[in-house]
Write a structure and sequence with these properties.
The chain is α+β, with helices and mostly antiparallel strands. It contains eleven helices and six strands.
Length: about 290
């Protein structure tokens, strides 16, 4: 979380909360130092802010300063204040989660449809471990370009999110590429089932501890959020389920065939009675 403090009558910041903790531990910031972060209605002594109260529990010299001067809240007027309220922090991370998986599933649906349109053998592709494990990689190359040139992706744009540097500028191509690679490895674990779930859980706890996900914390980036647009949310839901349906149309007949006897008898009977509609074969002649 970004924090601003008052030192020698001047506003200093933003600083990450872990940096403030280090300064407190080093004795640079006494308990009465006035600070502010998103969600506070006024400047408060560090000791009175929940984020840092524990740092002063064992400090016998810590004391609580009097109420801040009336003009101090105005000093935060030039601090970036996203439209998303701090009390909606869980919703903010939830928006980032859905934006991420919207992008991945829309890409995946288009990718499988493209495989069919190109006349590729879908059944063979499903058995190809290289394709199964690494078919998300091209998306992250595209994502880096989108973040560099526009600062957002389709999913983030629909949910009012944008990725910037701390000063509000867009990421250069190298920074955007590094960020996308970090997300690919540590954020979604290449999209590999259980590994992806574990990576998402670790990312959530890391974000709450550091104030930002590992890929943004390491690169010094931030995600700026705007108010949700109902029409864009409707579009996101529509495209999300449309992409899922498109992927199922292309792959489900082959997945059912691959499962064979492993498919529960009830489902197998249902598929035999009402086989899923799918696209016709378009293998290229050898």
């Amino acid at each position: 979380m970004e924090v601003w403090i008052i030192r020698d009558g001047e506003k200093v910041g933003p600083m990450h909360d872990f940096e403030v903790r280090r300064k407190i531990e080093g004795g640079e910031l006494p308990a009465e130092t006035l600070a502010w972060h998103e969600g506070l209605s006024a400047w408060k002594p560090l000791q009175e802010i929940d984020l840092f109260a524990r740092e002063f529990e064992n400090d016998p010299n810590a004391k609580v300063a009097g109420p801040p001067f009336p003009e101090f809240p105005d000093l935060a007027s030039d601090a970036p204040t996203p439209e998303v309220q701090p009390k909606a922090l869980k919703s903010h991370y939830l928006r980032r989660f859905w934006a991420r998986w919207f992008d991945l599933y829309v890409y995946s649906g288009c990718w499988w449809f493209g495989m069919w349109a190109a006349g590729q053998d879908i059944e063979a592709a499903l058995f190809n471990s290289w394709i199964t494990f690494f078919h998300f990689v091209p998306w992250f190359v595209l994502e880096a370009l989108l973040l560099h040139y526009w600062g957002t992706t389709p999913g983030k744009w629909l949910l009012g999110l944008a990725v910037t540097n701390q000063d509000g500028s867009r990421l250069d191509l190298a920074a955007a590429t590094h960020r996308s690679l970090r997300v690919l490895f540590t954020g979604v674990g290449f999209g590999w089932g259980l590994l992806a779930l574990v990576c998402q859980i670790i990312s959530l706890f890391t974000a709450r501890w550091l104030g930002a996900p590992l890929w943004d914390h390491t690169g010094g980036h931030r995600v700026v959020a705007k108010s949700l647009n109902p029409l864009k949310v409707i579009l996101l839901i529509s495209f999300f389920f449309g992409a899922l349906q498109l992927q199922m149309i292309v792959t489900s007949p082959y997945l059912v065939k691959m499962m064979g006897d492993a498919l529960p008898a009830v489902l197998k009977a249902e598929f035999e009675k009402n086989p899923p509609w799918h696209l016709p074969e378009r293998h290229r002649a050898n």
